[in-house]
Amino acid sequence: MVKITARKFVGRENVYDIGVKRDHNFAIKNGFIASNCFNKSHSTAYGYVTYQTAYLKANYPLEYMAALLTANSGDTDKVQKYINNCASMGITIDPPDINRSGLDFTPAAGKILFGFTAVRNVGQNAIASILLARNEGGEFQSLADFCDRVDLRAVNRRTVESLIHCGAFDKIESNRQQLICDLVLVYDWAQSRDKDRASGQGNLFDLLGDSSTNTQTSNAFDVVPKAEPVGDFPPQEKLRMEKELLGFYVSDHPLKSLTKAASVLSPINLAQLNDQREDTKICAVIMLNNVKKVMTKKGAQMAILQIEDLTAQSEAVVFPKTYERISDQLQVDVRLIIWGKVDRRDDQTQLIVEDVEPVETVKMVMVELNPQQARDIEELRRLQTILQEQSGDKEKANMPVIGIVQSENSRQLVRFGWQFCVQDSRLTVQALQNARFTAHLQPLIGN
C-alpha cells in the first residue's frame, strides 16, 4: 500500500498534499495523485471511496458489477470492457428474459441478467406495461399470452420484434424465426381482442377462457392463429441481431468457436495491444464492427476500422495502398484474420493493417514431426531452408506455419516465428511433402 505523507505546500488560499512516499512518476502512473497539485480534502474522500468500491467488488462481485454496468449503460465501450471483466471474474451475463428481467442489469441465480432498458426500441412506457402485466398476472406463457396482456399502445410490433431477436422469449420458444412469423398473426389477433374489450364486446376466445383453471386458459390460447412451421435463423444471423439490439454479443460470440485455433494462430490478443512495442507485427482473429471511409488530402481513400476479439475492442487504420487492395473484404459483421503492425501516436496505440482474409478461407500449414525429428538438428535445418524458400516476398508472407510434435502420449502444437511465415500455403505443403515431411493444409474453421 502506498502511504501518502503530509508534505504541505501553501498556495494562495488552499493547502495541498502532493507528497507520496514513492517517487512522483510512480504515483501519477498508478493514479494516486494528479500531475499537478491536488486538494488534500479531495484526495482523502477519493481514497475512502476507492476503499469502499474495492471492498464491494471483492465481497459482492455480482451486485457490484451489475451496478457498474447499469451506471455505464449509455457508454458502449465501457459496458463492453465491464462485460469482459465479468468473464474474467467467472460471472456469466444472461440476455434479457421476458419473465425475469427488470429495468436494469440485475444479479440473478449467480449471474447478471440484462435489463429491458439495454434493449433498443424498447421504451420506458413499454417496459412499464410489461412489468405491470407480469406483476398482476404472473409469468407469460406464450407469445399470444404476452400480446394479450400488455398494453399494445405502449408495446408496438417493433418492440416485440426487438425482444424476440435479442433472446427475451427464448425460454418460452427458442425458435426466434418461428416467433417472428407468428407475430404477424398474433399481434393482429391481440389488437382485435383489445378493440373488442374496449367496446365491451366478447368473443369465442373469452368463452373458452372463462375459467379459473390454468389448464382451460392454456387451452384457450390454442385457438390463436399461428404461421406455418419454419426453421430457426442461422446462428450468425441470431448473433448479428443481438449485437444490433444490445450492442454486444451476449448468448454467444462469433469468435468463440475459433478460440483454440486463434490461440495458436495469434498468441497476442487486442487487450494486449498496448503492451506491445512499436512496429510489433500482429496477427489477430477479429470481428469487423465498423468501416469509416476517409479521404486523404491527396484524394486517396483510406479507412478506419472498429474491430473486436473476445478480449477487447480496438481501432485499426488502413492506408490508401492497402485499402485499394483489400477494400472488397472489409464487410461489417464479418470474421477476419487481420495482419498489421503496432503504431503509437500521441500516447495512443493503434493497429496499422497490412492484410486481411476471411476466416472461412484461411488454411494453415501444418507440419507433423515425431519427437526424434524435433530433436534432430539436421532435420530442423532442412525444414527451415524449405520455409525460408517459400517465404518469397517478406512483406506478403503472412501465413504462419504450425508444427505438430506427435508422440505416443501427447500432441503439442508449436507456432513457428514470423520469419518462417509463408506466402502460398498450398505450394508450401507441396514443397514439404516433396522433401518427405508430413504436411497438410488445415482450415481455420475445421471439419
Strand content: 15-25%
Biggest sheet, open or closed, and with what strands and sense? 5 strands, mixed, barrel
Chain-averaged pLDDT: 82
Number of helices: 16
Strand-and-helix sequence, N→C? EEHHHHEEEHHHHHHHHEEEHEEEHHEEHE
Physical arrangement of strands within the biggest beta sheet = 6-7-8-10-9
Point out poorly predicted stretches.
1-24, 26-34, 209-217
- Specify the structural class: alpha+beta
Beginning-to-end CA distance, first to last residue: 52 Å
Overall number of strands: 14
**Oligomerization category of the chains in this entry:** single chain
Helix content: 25-40%
Radius of gyration: 29 Å
Shape: globular
In short:
This protein has 447 residues and is α+β, with helices and mostly antiparallel strands.
Provide structural commentary.
The model is unreliable at 1-24, 26-34 and 209-217 (pLDDT under 50). The longest helix has 23 residues, at 176-198. With 447 residues, this protein is of the alpha+beta class. The protein starts with 7 loop residues before the first strand and ends with a strand. Helices cover 38% and strands 20% of the residues. The protein is globular and about 90 Å long.
Keywords:
447 residues
Detail the topology: elements first, then pairings.
Blueprint: E1 8-10, E2 15-17, H1 24-29, H2 40-59, H3 61-71, H4 76-88, E3 93-94, E4 106-108, E5 111-113, H5 124-137, H6 143-149, H7 157-165, H8 176-198, H9 204-209, H10 214-220, H11 235-246, H12 259-265, E6 281-295, E7 301-308, E8 313-318, H13 320-326, E9 334-345, E10 348-358, E11 363-369, H14 371-375, H15 377-390, E12 401-406, E13 411-415, H16 425-434, E14 438-443
Parallel strand pairs: 3-5, 8-10, 11-12
Antiparallel strand pairs: 1-2, 4-5, 6-7, 6-9, 7-8, 9-10, 11-14, 12-13
